[in-house]
Structure prediction request, 243 residues.
Amino acid sequence: MKLDIDLINKLKQSKSLVFFTGAGISAESGIPTFRGKDGIWNKLKPEELANFNAFMRNPQMVWEWYNHRKKIIHESKPNPAHIAIAELQNHFDVTVVTQNIDNLHRRAGSKNVFELHGNIERNYCVNCKKFYNEELDFSSGVPICGCGGLIRPDVVWFGEYLPEDQFTGSEKASAECDIFFVVGTSAVVYPAAGLINVAESSGATIVEINLEETPLSYLADYSLYGKAGEILPEILSACATLI
Ligand code: BJW
Prediction:
């Protein structure tokens, strides 16, 4: 893909970049997306797995799903898209705002990362809120806290509030950046998707990178259609030649 010369000039004039990322950025690491052609929610119903009531009704089933995903994530590696974003830190102030729970941005070397929907490597007790960051023992079924409460993954399910510090920090970065990249998200889950409006109304240039259009594509100044793992390294190369 040939990058638009106007976009390269914008990059030249920019200091701060935000990368707002979704499941699509990790697809090339072998982690399935939620929606779309190969999305896991074509087969599984989100309301049966990604909400608190479903967990309380059937913690065993929800844990089986998360353990399956933990295994995939554990075996995966950051791909060229995650790595390009981390390397862009050598040229710009970079903030990553991710909806993903897979920790691949940090593993790629990104330093300034906000996690809007939690992190699969952490867990906590639904009763006393004690954190369990070590490997859990599933030998006698669903893990139980010392207080008797069920332990759950530290992720944000439908109907739950996003972690306030992560959301507030993301809003600030979105309002203050020069360029806001929207990478591999269907942009349908709120309040996360609303950050695109925050950036746009604050005057940031919006660049969308996706395989296809999304409901918020109309806000983009530049729409780059293709794989994030191919487009982001090209952006990195273009930036390297600016110096
Ligand atoms: C590629 C690619 C490649 C593929 N290269 N691209 C306003 C309006 C309507 C509804 C609401 C609203 N405000 C709130 C709501 C309700 C709800 C919501 O948004 N519902 C809509 C879906 C209808 N939101 C909530 O409930 C949120 N909480 C909340 O609002 O709290 C306030 C409140 C409290 C109490 C009562 C009421 C309100 C919480 C949302 C939590 C979302 N959680 C999940 C699960 C996380 C844990 C886990 O992973 O298990 O987060 S759902 C799931 O969707 C996950 C994702 O982070 C999130 C977004 O998905 P994402 O990342 O966009 O992935 P996909 O699969 O959808 O898209 C992939 C994209 O990549 C596609 O576009 C592909 O084309 C592309 N792609 N390969 C580039 N190689």
User: Anything to note?
Assistant: Strands lie at 16-21, 93-98, 113-115, 118-125, 131-132, 151-155, 179-183, 205-210, 222-225. Residues 22-24, 27-28, 33-36, 39, 50, 99, 101, 117, 155-161, 184-186, 188-191, 209-212, 214, 227-228 surround BJW (CB under 6 Å).
